[in-house]
Fold this sequence. Notes:
alpha+beta
Amino acid sequence: MRFEISKVLDAIEGRVCTDPSLARAVLDLAEVIRYQDIDGGRPASLLRLGMVIDALARELEEDSVPVYAVVHRALLSDADLTSNERMVVRRWADDGLVEVLDNPGDRMLEVADLLGLPVVTRVRSDGLRGRYPWLVDQPGRVVAPVPGAGGPVFIAHVGGGHTPVEGERSPAGAKLLSRHWRCPESGCALFGGGGGGGAFADLARVVERSPAAQPPPTLRGGVPTCPRHGVRLGDAGPRPRAEVLAVRIGGLIRRRFVLTEEQSVMIGRAPEQSGGVVLGQWLNDEARRWISRSHVRCELRVGEVVVTDVSTNGSGIRPAGSMAEADRIPLAPQQSRVLGEGDMVELYPGVQIGRPGELPAGAPYTPASVMAEAPTMAMRLPR
Length: 383
Ligand SMILES: [Zn+2]
């Protein structure tokens, strides 16, 4: 059972990040783990984060919906969590996957404001509507998770809907995210070179954080500041350009990934390159046979997305989303092509890569739960 729970926590780990291009909602981990009414279980449980992430995936109709979690420092030693759960949260903190703060204050709302993300919370913050007008002006921007039949469901604080709604990055957010920041504290997991400084880090886990994946600084008196260390951040130059692409399989977006001018991304059945997008888990036998281990390489060159086929069997381009066979442009092995607005690369029928906004869901939704490995005991819902 312990082993099973570890597997669930590993799955949840793949859904927490502070990358502004990938996070889809903001939440306060200390609040979420105490939603005892969702499952009637222990006072605090990290599995509830998984349940909320699954609920987001159902609402947004995508398989993988990463959340930006703000974490009160006290949570790292919270006696209501199991020692295993505490260890996992510390690891996330060391790797910069979550943002640990001595005093979170309204940081959750600040992140939502800077990044234009929806907020998942039961806490009403109407008193901050002066600073964050979208709290009351934008229906669906803040949603409360409440117990539902198959896990938590959402109710919008304003408007009464149930789907979290994204906003625009605030002007301050757009400005902050145009620069690369550096924290003077050594080993800063958020604004340093990597997550090497923590007590639980070892060589295998040190991940170089790409400048394009840096979280938004906090503003203190208008000065970009490290939210973790409370010190002024240094400006390390322009942030590299980034573009988000998504893999759609069987009509559903399964995963988004980020392309930068420094880092190309390989997509295939099981690419060996680090940072590659592994499709194997979603493919049927025929697609597995057709799609190469490394099938296409995506690059960002001077602001344009360039796709290169590196497969045995080749790919095709669907120009501006057209599904007509006559419009399909073959992409032979070793051929490259610029991916225009609305274009998709098709690795195999029904397996496509494109910009997420241009890949609408087209299939009945059957998400892969991060909780798939959860023991039934932990998942039991109140009657
Ligand atoms: Zn720092």
